[in-house]
Fold this sequence. Notes:
Elements: E1 2-7, H1 12-21, E2 27-33, H2 42-45, H3 62-68, E3 71-74, H4 85-90, E4 94-97, H5 107-113, E5 127-128, H6 131-139, E6 143-145, H7 149-164, E7 173-178, H8 193-196, E8 201-202, H9 211-222, E9 229-234, E10 241-248, H10 255-265, E11 272-274, E12 292-299, E13 304-311, H11 315-329
Parallel strand pairs: 1-2, 1-3, 3-4, 4-6, 5-6, 7-9, 11-12
Antiparallel strand pairs: 7-10, 8-9, 10-13, 12-13
Helix pairs in contact: 1-11, 6-11, 7-9
Amino acid sequence: xxxxxxxxxxxxxxxxxxxxxxxxxxxxxxxxxxERSAGxxxxxxxxxxxxxxxQVLEHLEPVRVAEKADFIFTALPHQAAMxxxxxxxxxxxxxxxxxxxxxxxxxxxxxxxxxxxLNPELLDKAVYGLPExxxxxxxxxxxxxxxxxxxxxxxxxMAPLLKKGLVDPATIIADSKSAVSxxxxxxxxxxxxxxxxxxxxxxxxxxxxxTPEIEQELSLLAGSRITMxxxxxxxxMDRGILSTIYASQSGEWTTTRLLELYRDHYCNEGFVxxxxxxxxxxxxxxxxxxxxxxxLVADKRTGRVVVISAIDNLVKGASGQAxxxxxxxxxxxxxxxxxxxxxxx
Length: 345
């Protein structure tokens, strides 16, 4: 059994990791940490895991955590991960980090959107953990930077078109809607029930921190520098992200032909479902699962292609993808512990 630690287990991504890992036949969770809830049982913080996780949450002491586990998930706020990941690596542990701390190749980009990087020398060693794009690199990595939720939905949605050069990269616009859980479990006025219920709003327009991450990965796929427009929206629901991505075609392609291309591109990807023509994704159909559903329409009138992707922001957008990366890093079947079908309704 692989001994696993969940560092930062009292947030939504932390408890989602615990939920998924409980069904993993090759894993034993041997350590859970939380600074704000240290000393309490996991089941007291999350009644959903009652009688399944009775561990007591500990303060984060990296050496002590490393003594208890061989593999470590860091589900910490940005910057906090940088303070402990180097210690884990020096002690010979493999790490999947769910923060943004190791997603960027350029430390100056990270600094301009977040804060100065504490260990930029690790950026070259970290692998951006989108398995459908970087599976081979993930397999040999000691440190994997788990992608953000919005980037996952947009990159998977655009990858086939950019790799084939079928759209003009300068015309890409991504319009995404996210559930409130994407803002984390901490109390904030903007995510209180009365502030979000019966409402729908854009936020972070032109300034969302996932923008440079999306641009970095789309640029690598296209082989040229991409600057795109990205606007996120907050929707009053618990889980899910729906991204609608627009781009001008560089030729004349029908919906039927583009869908064939997508099916060919993702034919060996068990967690990407390309939908039939005339069927478009819904967050309701991926809820609680590690699937990314993709549909598209070639708009003859405008010459654009409209790609729509849906994921559960806490699973494929965070913890499920983290377990997918863990499986690859340890030589397990990639779908181990992740084959649950979506919840419906």
